[in-house]
Amino acid sequence: MPPDCPSPHPAAAIVREVGLRDGLQSLAMVLPTATKLEWIDAAYAAGQREIEVGSFVPARLLPQLADTGELVAHAKRLPGLSVSVLVPNLKGAERALASGADLMLVPLSASRAHSVANLRKTPQEAVAMVREMRAARDAAGSSMLIEGGVGTAFGCTLQGAVPPGDVLRLVADLLEAGADRVSLADTVGYADPAAVRRLFGQARRIAGDRLCCAHFHDTRGLGLANALAALDSGVARFDACLAGIGGCPHAPGASGNVSTEDLVFMLESMGIGTGVDMARLLALREAAVRWLPDQPLHGALWRAGLPRTYPAPSGAA
Fold first, then answer.
1. Is position 248 annotated as part of the catalytic site?
2. Against a cut of 0.85, is the pTM above it?
3. Among residues of the chain, what percentage have pLDDT more than 70?
4. How far is CA 41 from CA 21, 44, 48, 99, 277, in A?
5. What are residue 134's phi and psi, to 5 degrees?
6. In this predicted structure, what is the pLDDT of residue 249?
7. What is the mean pLDDT of the chain?
8. DSSP 3-state assignment of 220?
9. Which residue from 258, 251, 266 is spatially nearest to 214, judged by alpha carbons?
10. Which of 156, 213, 241, 248 does the annotation list as catalytic?
């Protein structure tokens, strides 16, 4: 791009760390609460200002996330940190409201098969649940945001193809049901950049600025390419996992979310500010090696290291 041409991308972007929830829930081990608190503090010190700390689900189902309430209480003491939690049902929403978290993410699947397997609800039953959550939020006088996360937006290991019309209908229905904002997720890594540009562009025509976030998995090595495609469509908030941990229980063998450190590196290299200190983030990644022994960790930056030219002005020869 010639130096006198304005960048088509935003000057800044947000990377929401979801490793404490989406990453850890897929691992067999249970990380000690004290270690999770250390993780939150280190991510905050590195400049991350949005963290999904856990999920309000029954401990018997996901013992990895049983301490979510304690993590919320700790994270809320950090100034300027937006604390998110995932809630799969009304009971979880009630616990989230009591916790004082800033945002509850409600996961829905555009794939009917995945929705029933994951939530035991059809997509439309899940939308009706969001309506109940909105009523409970308003009755409590809470300012907590409700984000409807539309998963399997690009395909599903159980159902196969997911028609874009089904995704777009869910986006509209979620907003009508009272969600403050919506996001799209490539839960099992079926997306490609062209499909991302199309679907996010169509969703933006429905949701406008309330289309707030993109969630990509790096299952087939296209996570960063898809993030760039979403960036091209106007998205400026992304989910990512430290060390790319996690995956989807309905996609055996799949890697986790886009690596936080790889995504931050890409954005910063492009001149898009994230507010994240790369040296501190890489130190946190090094800590993950100690915390998660014998667990599959991912990420290209960790293997190769920062280039000697980093940081360089965007567009420099």
1. yes
2. yes
3. 93
4. 16, 5, 10, 19, 14
5. -65, -40
6. 60
7. 93
8. coil
9. 258
10. 248
